[in-house]
Design goal:
The structure is a single chain. The protein is α+β, with helices and mostly antiparallel strands. The protein folds into two domains: 86 residues, no CATH class; 115 residues, Thiol Ester Dehydrase, Chain A (Roll). Helix content is 35%, strand content 22%. It is built from five helices and six strands. The protein has a six-stranded antiparallel sheet, covered by helices on one side. The longest helix is centred in the first third of the chain and has 24 residues. The chain is globular, with a radius of gyration of 19 Å. The chain starts with a helix and ends with a helix. Bound molecules: decanoyl-CoA. The site of decanoyl-CoA has 18 residues, from helix 4, strand 3 and strand 6. Decanoyl-CoA binds next to helix 4, strand 3 and strand 6.
Length: 218
């Protein structure tokens, strides 16, 4: 019987994963921004290795989903963009406002490209997630087959950002969506725009790609 079934509770585990994610995000921010003495860096590296060891005692394999996740329910705690348990995620929070998906986040030092601004690949990653969300909630989920990004102005670090996405066309299995990044303070000035194409998988494609994860290949 798993720990979750055994009474510790799914909600409790999700809260613990979120707490660990918060701590890891703090660690990444501090470790990226630090100008602490070199001796402190060496000491921190040792402490972090010690902290990581027990986490590595029980890990899942490539095709196993996390016990606290709910794939069909859309709970992905380790998603690298939105996952509250992910050390890497800003995390981006996304909600719906009518037909438009609206996201908010702020990017720290770890996401830096040009000095004091976000890396362009990070903007593309955020927008891929935004467009994917809009496509999914439109009822036609699919995988990204094309993502075009236009960088009009650099995206500032340590600044609340407002992202949007919406579906614009549906042609057979191809759904096209567009999205933007702006700051919360100046939502009318678009910093980055993206257009993405998403393709709904055929049953054969879904089976080929995800059969080992869903167990439908057994
Ligand atoms: C709430 C949760 C939110 C979740 C958000 C998640 C966001 C993140 C999403 C991702 O990042 S997904 C990961 C990145 N994407 C991939 O890894 C996909 C890799 N591509 C594939 O595996 C195959 O392309 C795929 C199985 C998706 C489709 O298979 P095919 O390439 O054989 O396409 P197919 O021959 O079935 O063609 C289907 C349609 O797509 C069209 N198509 C395919 N590739 C295209 C392309 N690159 N550009 C434009 N159209 C394309 C193709 O013309 C055709 O159009 P029609 O139906 O109108 O005839």
């Amino acid at each position: 019987m798993s720990e979750i079934e055994n009474g510790h509770g799914l909600q409790h585990r999700r809260e613990a994963i979120t707490g660990l994610g918060d701590a890891l995000r703090l660690l990444i921010e501090q470790a990226t921004a630090t100008e602490a003495p070199t001796a402190e860096l060496l000491r921190a590296a040792e402490l972090i290795r010690q902290a990581a060891a027990p986490l590595g005692e029980r890990v899942r394999g490539r095709f196993e989903t996390a016990a606290a996740d709910d794939l069909l329910g859309g709970v992905r705690l380790y998603n690298p963009v939105t996952g509250l348990g992910s050390a890497f995620a800003p995390p981006l929070e996304i909600h719906r406002e009518g037909d438009v998906a609206v996201g908010t986040c702020s990017l720290g030092r770890a996401f830096e490209g040009p000095p004091s601004f976000a890396h362009g690949g990070v903007s593309a990653m955020l927008l891929d997630q935004m467009l994917g969300y809009a496509v999914t909630v439109s009822g036609r989920p699919g995988m990204t087959v094309q993502l075009d990004t236009g960088y009009r102005q650099p995206v500032p670090l340590y600044t609340p950002l407002r992202l949007t996405a919406q579906v614009v066309t549906v042609e057979n299995r191809v759904v096209t969506a567009t999205g933007t990044i702006a700051t919360v303070d100046d939502p009318g000035t678009i910093l980055v725009r993206a257009t993405g194409k998403f393709v709904a998988l055929l049953a054969e494609q879904a089976q080929r790609l995800f059969g080992p994860v869903t167990g439908s290949d057994r």
